[in-house]
Design brief:
This protein is mostly beta strands. It is built from one helix and 15 strands, in the order ββββββββββββββαβ. It has one helix spanning about 195-200, and strands at about 20-25, 50, 65-70, 80-85, 90, 100-105, 115-120, 125-130, 130, 140, 150-155, 160, 170, 175-180, 255-260. A seven-stranded antiparallel sheet has the order 7-14-8-11-12-13-15, with no helix packed on it.
Length: about 260
């Protein structure tokens, strides 16, 4: 049975703030040389990109929430805020933030949804999102719908965060994070009912490797519905696939205290 998620928290369904949008140029998965580097990308509905404040540009300046909006480029909702100097910005809307509320970016802000402050000033057990990896770099972790991290401990200038994947990692206490969990947590229950939904989102059809010829894919060939004919699956270019570790930045392993647990 298909499930349809109602956008009950959105207060503005009209066009987005014009000064905070950019034209979204489609690439079709092609790089500058014209060759396809990301497959199954193309088409899709026309949409504008919303410029979002992932960092903390205006410090110690309260901002009022004007609207909660839908963003076609991401799963989370956006909050349109206005500072005292009449400057408007888009931020990721956390759960519990409502129109008319006030958010502030400050080192000593209150522990309220939407407020942004340094990790060293956030008590243990608090839910955070849009967390910086390097100080001043802007939020990188916990930005999708329903995402959150839990502050577990403070030790030696680092904050221990338990991510949604169950991974526990160290982040500098000088990094900023927003309080609360990201909005639209029910997105994980949504179901795309038909193929046209994928096409409107810019996703082209995927073809199974076993349905191809041997010259096109390592899984191809055979009579009828045969197996892949090998011990482990491979990519179209012959590299191991499905379950193979692809982590390259081994220099950051020292910041990972506990690896994520695989779902059985």
């Amino acid at each position: 049975m298909a499930v349809q998620i109602q956008k009950v928290n959105i207060t503005k369904n009209k066009d987005p703030e014009k000064r905070l949008t950019l034209r979204w140029r489609k690439t079709g998965g092609r790089a500058q040389n014209g060759r396809i580097t990301s497959r199954h990308i193309g088409g899709g509905s026309r949409k504008m990109y919303r410029i979002i404040e992932f960092g903390q540009a205006n410090m110690d300046m309260p901002a009022t929430v004007l609207a909660i909006e839908y963003d076609p480029n991401r799963t989370a909702y956006l909050a349109l805020i206005e500072y005292e100097n009449k400057e408007k910005k888009y931020i990721l809307s956390p759960q519990g933030l409502q129109v008319g509320g006030v958010v502030v970016f400050s080192e000593n802000a209150a522990i309220d949804p939407g407020n942004r402050l340094k990790l060293k000033n956030i008590p243990e057990g608090t839910l955070v999102h849009n967390v910086e990896i390097m100080p001043g770099q802007g939020g990188k972790m916990g930005r999708s719908a329903g995402s959150k991290a839990v502050v577990v401990a403070h030790e030696g200038g680092f904050c221990h965060l338990k991510m949604a994947s169950s991974e526990v990692r160290k982040v500098s206490e000088e990094c900023f994070a927003s309080v609360g969990a990201v909005s639209n947590a029910d997105y994980r229950f949504s179901v795309w009912r038909k193929a046209g939904t994928s096409r409107r989102k810019g996703i082209r059809p995927h073809v199974r490797g076993t349905a191809m010829n041997p010259c096109d894919h390592p899984h191809g060939g055979g009579e009828g519905r045969t197996g892949i004919g090998m011990k482990h699956p491979k990519t179209p270019w012959g590299k191991p696939a499905l379950g193979v570790k692809t982590r390259r930045r081994t220099t950051t392993n020292k910041y990972i205290l506990e690896r994520r647990r695989k779902n059985k």
